[in-house]
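User: Sequence for ArsR-family transcriptional regulator below. Tokens please.
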Amino acid sequence: MADDVFKALADPTRRRILDELADRNGQTLFEICARLTTRHGLGLSRQAVSQHLAVLEAAGLVVSRREGRYKFHDLRTDPLKHIVSRWLGPQPPESTP
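Assistant: Structure tokens for ArsR-family transcriptional regulator:
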């Protein structure tokens, strides 16, 4: 599973998609494409973005849900938490000065 996550994160376009979903979860494919174009200057086709979303979904970083005619995409951070805990272990609570 971690290999899929690393593969998904290796591509800068997929990282931008995750950034956009972190900024605003529950976006449609059309919304993601529009944000990639306006905020990052990426003129990708819907098919290309859909393929990137499929890789992210296979890695468990994105989950999609259908509501009527629309398909919404949501960020899942559990795979990232697993990777962080793998090397950093449990973190003690931060103390405030």
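The chain has a mean pLDDT of 91.
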